[in-house]
Amino acid sequence: MRFIIGLLCLTLSFLWGFQVFAQSVKPSVAFMYSEPPDQVLYTYDWIVVDPDVFTPEKIKERFYVKRRGKLIAYFSLGEVEPFRKFFKHVRKSWILGKNKAWKSFVVDLRNKECFEFMLKKASALLKSYDGIFLDTLDSYQMVLPKKEWKSYERRKVEFIKALRRNYPKKIIMVNRGFDVYPQVKSLIDAVVVESLYKGLDAKLNYVDVGNRERQWLLDKLKKIKEEKPVVVIDYLPSNKEQEARRVAKRLIKEGFIPWVADKNLTEVGEGVFHILKRKILLVYDSSLEIPDESDVHRLIQLPLEWLGYEPVVVSVGDFSEKSLTSDVKGVVVWNIRGKKNKDKVIKLLLKAKKRGIKVFIVDLSVFSPEQLKHLNFELVSNRKPEEVPKIVYKGRTYGFEIKAYPFPTDSFVNPKGKYTPLLVLENSVGQKFIPVAITPWGGYGYSGYLLKDMFNDSLWVFDPFWLFSEVFGRLPFAPDVTTESGRRIMTVHLDGDGFADKSFVEYGKYVGEVLREKIFKVYKVPHTVSVIVGEVDPRGLYPKKAKKLMEVAKSIFSLPNVEPASHTYSHPFNWIDVYRMSMGLKPTDKRNLKYGYHLPIPGYVPSVKKEIDYSLEFIDKYLAPNGKKAKVLLWSGDCAPPPPVVERTYKLGVYNVNGGDTTIDDTFPYLCKVSPMGINKGKFFQVYAPVQNEEVYTKGWKIKDGYVRVISTFKLTDKPRRLKPISIYYHFYSAQFPLSFNALKKVYDWAMRQGTVPMFLSEYAQRVLEFRGASIAESNRDGNMYFCSSGSLKTVRLEGKGGIPSIDKSQGVVGYRRINGRIYVFLDDSRCRRIVFVNRDDNDFVLVSSNGMVKDFRKDVERGYYRLVLHSEVLPLKADLRVADTCSLRVGNGVNLKRKGGMVEVEARKKKVTVEAVCKR
C-alpha cells in the first residue's frame, strides 16, 4: 500500500429476518500483503491481498478452503511501483513525480493512454478477485499545483464509474479520496483511511498521530461512516500485540472497522477479531533425521494437536528469524547437533523469548555450558559425581508411562530465576538438580528424565498433554477430527496392492470380486478404494488380464458407497529417489531394495506426473462412472514423498493420504505408537492414515489373521482420550486367504457395532486440512469466541470445566455430548460459528448424537423455532435429540420419532432427514 499518512410462514419470516441482519452488519476486513494464512481467509469477510503475492493460482492450491472471505486485490491507482511486473510498460510521459518515502512514481490519470492502461490492469484483477482496493488516490496532491487538482479529480471519478459499470457486483474500496467521495459514494462499498491513532512518519518510523491531525481526519469521517463502512488501518510493530488490540477495540467503539498491523502489512494484525495463536514450530536437525522420522515430529506433535495447536516441522537449516512470525505461539527443539547449529538455535530462541513466543527444549544435555549460560542456566559441579542422586520431589503426572531412573553425573544444570520444578534430585551433600521444569518463558527437560528410552523407543515420564498445556497454555477449545455429531468417525480405505491376484476364498475369482460381493456390498459404509493404475492399464504390467481387471475396478467404483482413489501408477517404494529419477538424477538409496524403486513395468521411466496426474486421469476416464472422480491419492511404499511431490496433489486439487505409524495395541500400549495427523512438507501437508494397515498387524503376513489386533488399537485410541477415528485400512490381498479374510470381517463386525459416523477418506482428509488452518478467534466487538473453518470440521472439544454451550446464545452450535469426561460440541457447516458457554443448561433443542452429519441448522430464538438437517451415508439414519417438553416436533414422511422423557429418538430409512421444532416462549 502507498500510504497517504406456521412452520412455513415461520421459516420464511426467519430467513427474511436473517438476511436483513446480515446486511446490517459491517464486514470484518483484513489487509495482508504476504500470503494470508488460512486462519485469516476463514475468519475475515474481506481480505485485501497483494495480487503479485497471492495469485488466483495460489488460491486454487488451497482447494480445501471451500468457504472463505472475499479476496480484494490491492491496486495502486495514483502511483506505480518499480517492482510491479507491468512497470516496464509505464511510459515516462505518464510520470508526474516521485513518492520518495515509498520509492514509487506518481502517474497522471489525465493522460488518455495512462488512464486506459491503468483501467485495463484494474479490470484484469476484477476478473479474478472478488473486489479491488484502490490506493494512492490522493498522491497527485504531492506533485501537482492546486489549480490542476480538479482536472485530476474528474479522471478519478471516471475511472471508478468505469469499474462499477463493467463490474456491478464486485467490491470496490477506496483509500481516502475525500475530494471525490460525494460523486462516487453510490459506486463504492467502503472507504479506507490510515493512521488515526498510530501511524508512520516520513521515514516510515512508527509514531503516535497528533491530536490536530486526528481531529481533522475524524471530522472528515463523521458523515462518511454513517453512509459507508469505514476501515481504519493503524500501524504498530508486530510485537505490540496488546496495544494493537486496545487500539482495535477503541476504533470499533468509535464506529470504525479496524486493522492494526505492521507497516508492511505482512503479519496477522488485530481487526474485528483477535485470532489466537496456534502455530508451534518443531525444530529438528536434518543432518541426523529425516522429518518424517524425527523425534520432535513423532513424539511431540500428537499431544500438541490434541490441545488444538498447529505444529509445523522445521529443519534447523530453515529455522530463521523469518520463521518467528506473528502467528507463532511456541517453539520446541530437540536433537540439535553441531556447534554451529546449536549457536544458531540459541540465538533464535532468545529472539523468540524476547517476542513473547514460548520455548520448550526437550533435551538440555546437548548444549555446552557456555551455550546454556546464554539461556540463563547455570552449571553446578557435582561434588558426588559417582553417586546416584535421589528423587526428592515428583511433580504432577510423574510416572505417566514410566518412572525416571536417576544416574550419576559430573555436573548439574539448573535454571536461574523463577521456575516450577517437575522433578527435583538431590545428592547426599544437599546439592539439587532440576532436570524438568516449567518456566515463565516455556520449559525444558533433560536427557532421561522427561522421556525415557525403552524397547527401542521413548516413553513419557510426565503426561505430555498436561505438560504442554502448562507450557503453551490451554486454548478455549480444541478442534477435533475424531468425532462428529457425538459419535466417533469411521473411515475405510484400501491400497491397490494385490488387485491383480486370484483369491483362495473363492477359487478362480479375483480378490477385487470377492471384496466387492462379500465386503463392499455387505458392509454398506463409505469405502475409499484405490488401484495401482500400472496393474490395470493395458499398456502396463499385466496387458493380458488388464481388460478383466478394468471390468472389476469399474464394477467396484460404480458402487454408491465406493469413492475411487489412485494408489499411483507404478507403486514407488522410495519416493525421494523416484522423484530424483523423474528429474533425470540418480537415486541416492544405496540399499539393495528387494522390490526395486517401483513395480517393473516394461519400458517405464519414473515420472511424478505419470505417478500422480496420469494415474488419476486414467481412473477418471476409464474406470470411474459418470459423476465420480478420484479425489484421493494414496501414497505407496515408504509413504515419504518430498515437498514437490506433495505439492503436485495440491495443484490437482486432490487429497493425499497415507503414512504414519499408529500401531498401539495391548502388547505395547504407549503413545510413541500413535502418530500425529500428518506432516507438513514445506507449505503443504501430508495427511497420515489414522491407523496402520493389516500388513503391520500380520507382521508381514507371517500371522495371516493378525489384523484382528487392530481392534485393540481402536480401543486404546478411544480411551482415556479419543486420539483417532476408527480407521479400517487394508490391501486387496486381505481377500486372498481365508484366514486373513475372516480376520477382516471380524474387524468390520466390531466396528459396525460401535455406533459411528462413517465417512469417505476424502471427507476425513478435508477435516484434517481444516484443523491445520482453522481459526479460534475472540471478537474485539463483543468478546465472544468464534470458530472458523470451511464448515466440514464440525466438532470442537473442551475440558469439562468450561461450562455448557448455549444453543440459543451461540450461532452455529447444534449440540454437545460428554465423552471421556470432556465436552464435545457439535457445529453446523457455516464458516464462522459463535460459541457461547453458560453455567446452566437451559437449552430447549440439543443434538446429542447421530450417525449422520449436520448439513444445515437454523433457528429463530425469539419464536422458539429450530430446524436441523442431517445426512447419513448409512441406513437407517439415527439421531438422539434432547428436546424440552414445551416443544412440538415435525418431521417428513418415513421418519419415526420416539419420545422418552426429555429425549427423542429419530430413525429413518433415508439418507436425509429434516427435524423442525417449535418451542413455547
Automatic annotation (TrEMBL):
Keyword Hydrolase: no
Domain Glycoside-hydrolase family GH114 TIM-barrel: 47-266
Pfam families according to UniProt: Glyco_hydro_114
Keyword tags: Signal
Signal peptide: 1-22
UniProt protein name: Extracellular protein
